[in-house]
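queue> pop job 88
queue> type: inverse folding (structure -> sequence)
queue> payload:
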């Protein structure tokens, strides 16, 4: 299936088939947004609950008007600044948008991926709905191999490099006041707030229990989880368990100090404050840990300071908490 010209995949999508394709965040499982049978196949193949809505992927701004009832001024500013890119915007939907896409809600999620292949595919096939191309509950795919592990060889996959960002897009709801980040991602609250005056909050800051689940149904499901159990690594832990993979990011941890470069076991990975690299590799580490038989993955907890800086750390913490099961 690999190495076909793009037209081959466009034709498959036009005939109602699913195609997995690369984006800058993770690999997506695409179907034409105007074909209910194809959209239904996504839920069936992934084992995705039908109350978890899908993101519409577009390749130009004109496509947005077919789905969004109105486009607020601040959305235009955000699109100018962050599209193409890892920012999904939620709008009130037009009546003709398929209920299956929006899980029956009156809103629709839209983004423009920052990836040439994805954009060309959408140019050719029209807007695509595309959740991450993994079985529901598994870590999102950041390599073509991950897609094949979950779905086998029969699913058409457009092969590309490992994805550049490695975790899913920021989801920003523009339909209620204040605007709300339903899922943190590579575009941070600080970056959004820099370009619009409109107040923006993270869902967790609203401290209204259950709010996140009602407004972004997908966030209530177990996600991103390896089979190994995931836990936070405390700052004082010094005993190395042979069946545990250690992911350290601050660059300063007793486990590193006790093991000089030469004798650091391969089960201790040091990201040395490169949070972007940790994001790129997190899901692959999860999948590899399972293959290598690790029973636990211990990830260094994030300091408040790193969470306040303009980094991907808030999104990383969110995904790790989901993998821990919280
Ligand atoms: P995935 O496709 O796996 O990246 O998941 C898509 C995410 O976007 C899920 O968390 C969905 O709940 C969320 N989402 C999609 N459409 C909407 C919408 N209309 N309102 C709120 N959240 C949405
Ligand atoms: Mg997903």
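queue> result:
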């Amino acid at each position: 299936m690999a190495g076909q010209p793009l037209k081959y995949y466009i034709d498959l999508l036009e005939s109602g088939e699913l195609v997995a394709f690369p984006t800058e965040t993770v690999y997506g499982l695409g179907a034409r947004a105007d074909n209910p049978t194809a959209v239904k196949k996504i839920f069936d193949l992934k084992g995705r609950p039908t109350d978890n809505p899908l993101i519409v992927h577009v390749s130009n701004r004109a496509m947005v008007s077919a789905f969004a009832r109105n486009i607020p001024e601040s959305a235009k500013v955000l699109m100018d600044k962050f599209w193409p890119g890892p920012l999904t915007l939620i709008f009130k939907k037009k009546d003709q948008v398929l209920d299956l896409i929006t899980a029956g809600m009156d809103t629709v999620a839209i983004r423009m991926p920052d990836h040439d292949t994805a954009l060309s595919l959408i140019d050719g096939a029209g807007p695509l709905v595309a959740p991450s191309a993994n079985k529901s509950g598994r870590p999102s795919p950041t390599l073509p191999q991950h897609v094949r592990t979950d779905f086998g060889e029969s699913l058409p996959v457009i092969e590309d490099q490992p994805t550049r960002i490695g975790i899913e897009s920021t989801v920003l709801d523009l339909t209620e006041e204040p605007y709300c980040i339903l899922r943190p991602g590579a575009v941070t609250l600080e970056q959004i707030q820099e370009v619009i005056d409109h107040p923006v909050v993270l869902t967790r800051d609203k401290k209204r229990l259950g709010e996140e689940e009602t407004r972004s149904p997908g966030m209530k499901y177990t996600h991103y989880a390896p089979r190994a159990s995931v836990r936070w690594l405390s700052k004082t832990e010094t005993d190395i368990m042979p069946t545990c993979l250690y992911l350290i990011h601050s660059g300063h941890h007793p486990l590193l100090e006790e093991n000089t470069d030469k004798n650091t076991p391969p089960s201790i990975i040091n990201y040395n404050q490169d949070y972007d690299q940790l994001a790129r590799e997190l899901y692959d580490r999860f999948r590899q840990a399972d293959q290598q038989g690790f029973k636990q993955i211990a990830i260094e907890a994030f300091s408040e300071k790193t969470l306040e800086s303009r980094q991907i750390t808030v999104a990383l913490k969110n995904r790790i908490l989901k993998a821990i099961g919280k």
